[in-house]
UniProtKB/TrEMBL annotation:
<dbReference type="GO" id="GO:0016020">
    <property type="term" value="C:membrane"/>
</dbReference>
<keyword id="KW-1133">Transmembrane helix</keyword>
<keyword id="KW-0812">Transmembrane</keyword>
<comment type="function">
    <text>May play a role in the trafficking of a subset of G-protein coupled receptors.</text>
</comment>
<protein>
    <recommendedName>
        <fullName>Protein odr-4 homolog</fullName>
    </recommendedName>
</protein>
<comment type="similarity">
    <text>Belongs to the ODR-4 family.</text>
</comment>
<dbReference type="GO" id="GO:0008104">
    <property type="term" value="P:intracellular protein localization"/>
</dbReference>
<dbReference type="GO" id="GO:0012505">
    <property type="term" value="C:endomembrane system"/>
</dbReference>
<dbReference type="Pfam" id="PF14778">
    <property type="entry name" value="ODR4-like"/>
</dbReference>
<dbReference type="InterPro" id="IPR029454">
    <property type="entry name" value="ODR-4-like"/>
</dbReference>
<feature type="transmembrane region" description="Helical">
    <location>
        <begin position="424"/>
        <end position="444"/>
    </location>
</feature>
<keyword id="KW-0472">Membrane</keyword>
Length: 446
């Protein structure tokens, strides 16, 4: 038995409109949410056309000309604009009848390429019990025939499985929302011996350690700790029906554990550093969950991933901006203070779900509107752009502006000595004890 995809009714009209413009094919992404019982598709977004495509010579249609890297890059950009609980569920293709034969093979290849690209950026991994099937939707532009299949992205040898594609009106009109504010104060040391003292790599490593703290945190939903296997709405008054737009919002507090359990051992490590990176601020996080008896576990997992994703995405955007505007050399230890992009939310028409994006302080509303049209094929009114938070910062603190060759040699020597001391800690301690007993004996003999 294959998976069932419940699809927002407006997506059918969107795909039908694309089929009238196809020359000879168009690809795109399916956005939605997985659940154990079924999957939900809330948006379909076409791949933005490349400028050179308009200048290509006319010839027989071929899927071989499809730009895989362009599609995976689009998927990475779109994934940043999705709040917790939403992800790229698959890919679609609207193509002419003569391309139908090769369409499914192309879609399969795209699904695995997109998943590989997205998984590289994540600071979390899919759980064993999670749904790992992704959809490949193929539509014939002439006959309008829809074929939906799935592939297991955890299995490179996965074969196609049939899936049901069912449209439903007001699919997300009363989805459940969870939100929290997380105060961030992350200190990331920059090792003196790290190659080129690469800020981006060090920041990623620091965020990876921080993400594990978030995974181990305690989440209070409306002030209560709830069992993971209970229903999220247990004990709450539910909204009647799903035809009226409404959001049941849960306020969440995140309690980060300050110490390890009594059974866990902790080892202190001394490292020579050339400076540090400090991430400070309060970030707004949000997640959405379907309203078909969702479990607490699903909701908390969606919010955890949003917390981790939003900080990781901001840092990626910051470094990309530095490279674009100031050159690749700015990735290294040259700047001391930066402002992280702020998070904003934009409503989806006819839905309780809001999409997300990030803006720098000098970005105008027009630039954000253009990005939504390009990335998500969605027009946005300036008054619908809601800035969710205050400014967060990245403070880069070098010990010195630059290290001379002599200083670098001294730091390297000090690092080696520290490693030697760590390995010989017990020997040194024993030697000190012996010397103390000798001096003590000598004192009393005198």
């Amino acid at each position: 038995m294959g998976r069932t995809y419940l699809v927002e009714e407006g997506i059918g009209q969107y795909l039908a409109e694309l089929s009238t413009k196809v020359k000879p094919y168009v690809t795109g992404l399916l956005i939605g949410q997985c659940s154990p019982q079924r999957d939900y598709v809330i948006r379909a977004v076409r791949t933005p056309p490349k400028e050179q495509q308009q200048e290509e010579s006319v010839g027989p249609p071929k899927l071989a000309s499809l730009d895989e890297e362009w599609i995976t890059t689009h998927a990475s950009q779109v994934s940043r604009m999705l709040p917790g609980g939403l992800l790229v569920l698959g890919v679609f293709m609207v193509a002419t009848p003569e391309l139908a034969k090769d369409g499914q093979n192309t879609l399969r290849k795209l699904i695995f390429s997109v998943e590989k690209s997205l998984s590289k950026r994540r600071l979390w991994k899919l759980a064993e019990e999670e749904v790992s099937d992704r959809a490949a939707l193929q539509i014939c532009s002439a006959t309008k025939k829809v074929v939906c299949r799935t592939y297991d992205v955890q299995d490179p040898k996965s074969s196609a499985k049939p899936a049901d594609w069912k449209y439903q009106s007001s699919l997300t009109a009363s989805w459940l929302a969870l939100g929290c504010t997380v105060n961030v104060n992350i200190h990331i040391p920059l090792l003196a011996t790290s190659p080129n003292r690469d800020l981006e790599k060090n920041t990623k490593n620091g965020l990876n350690r921080w993400s594990k703290q978030i995974e181990d945190s305690v989440f209070l939903i409306n002030g209560q700790v709830k069992d993971e296997d209970t229903e999220l709405l247990e004990g709450q008054k539910k909204l009647r029906g799903n035809t009226q737009l409404g959001t049941q919002f849960s306020d969440v507090k995140v309690l980060t554990q300050l110490c390890q359990g009594a059974s866990a051992r902790s080892t202190a490590t001394v490292q020579v550093c050339s400076g540090s990176i400090n991430l400070r601020g309060a970030v707004k996080c949000r997640a959405y969950v379907h309203n078909n008896k969702p479990k607490v576990k699903e909701a908390i997992q969606a919010l955890k991933r949003d917390i981790i994703n939003t900080l990781n995405d901001r840092c990626e955007i910051l470094f990309e901006d530095l490279i674009l505007n100031e050159g690749p050399q700015k990735k290294n230890f040259e700047r001391e203070y930066h402002v992280l992009p702020q998070r904003l939310f934009v409503p989806v028409a006819g839905s309780s779900v809001m999409l997300s994006d990030y803006k720098f302080g000098d970005e105008a509303a027009g630039e954000i509107q253009e990005r939504f049209v390009e990335m998500l094929d969605q027009p946005v009114q300036a008054e619908d752009i809601h800035i969710a938070e205050d400014i967060s910062t990245v403070d880069i603190c070098p010990l010195t502006d630059s290290l001379s060759d002599t200083q670098q040699a001294q730091l390297t020597k000090a690092t080696l000595l520290l490693k030697l001391q760590q390995n010989m800690g017990l020997v040194v301690a024993a030697a000190v004890a012996v010397l103390a007993s000798i001096f003590s004996f000598s004192y009393f003999s005198d």
